[in-house]
Amino acid sequence: MQTLTDRVETKVALSVTSAEVAQAGSIDSAQLAATLPPELADVIAAALSIIARGGTVTIGSLPSELSTTTAADILDISRPTLMKLIKTGALPSYKVGSHTRLKASDVTAYRENLRNQQRAAFNDLRDYEDMLDADN
């Protein structure tokens, strides 16, 4: 039986050059051992799981100040919709000259709040369906 690690190693091995394989082969396996904090181990396990299913994992950082275009991309909404959220006060912003900027922390907090609302709505719908099934 192929383990998750084996599947990931197979996928990764297909995307490296022969020089990289030779370099990796010269590394002593004892040098690869490390103790990770549980939070980091969870992140790595989640990334490996996504990669094993053929998904893509992107790791990056956000600047502390975001343009409206970047914020809209992060929230997966159109820029005009983002501007409506700003105009109604649902999302705080500030001006730099004539440009509207948003704090990354505000955008990520809004995204998390939106996801929590979506999860709650889904759970309510699921509970309602369960109630209907119980009545039948």
Written overview of the protein:
This protein is mainly alpha-helical. The protein folds into two domains: about 20-55, no CATH class; about 65-135, Multidrug-efflux Transporter Regulator, Chain: A, Domain 2 (Orthogonal Bundle), CATH 1.10.1660. It has helices at about 5-15, 20-25, 40-50, 70-75, 80-90, 105-135; strands at about 65, 95, 100-105. A three-stranded antiparallel sheet has the order 1-3-2. Helix 1 packs across helix 3 (about 40-50). The radius of gyration is 22 Å and the shape is flat. The model is unreliable at about 5-15 (pLDDT under 50).
What is the CATH top level name of the largest domain?
A: Mainly Alpha
The CATH topology annotation of the largest domain reads as: Multidrug-efflux Transporter Regulator, Chain: A, Domain 2
Mean pLDDT over all positions: 83
Number of individual domains: 2
Total strands: 3
Architecture of the largest domain, according to CATH?
A: Orthogonal Bundle
User: Are there runs of 5+ residues with pLDDT below 50, and where?
Assistant: 6-14
Provide the β-strand percentage band.
5-15%
Q: Helix fraction?
A: 55-70%
Question: What letter string, H or E per element, gives the SSE order?
Answer: HHHEHHEEH
Head-to-tail CA distance between termini: 43 Å
Write a brief caption for the model:
This protein has 136 residues and is mainly alpha-helical. The protein folds into two domains: 18-53, no CATH class; 65-134, Multidrug-efflux Transporter Regulator, Chain: A, Domain 2 (Orthogonal Bundle), CATH 1.10.1660. The protein has helices at residues 4-13, 18-25, 38-52, 68-75, 79-88, 104-135, and strands spanning 65-67, 94-96, 99-103.
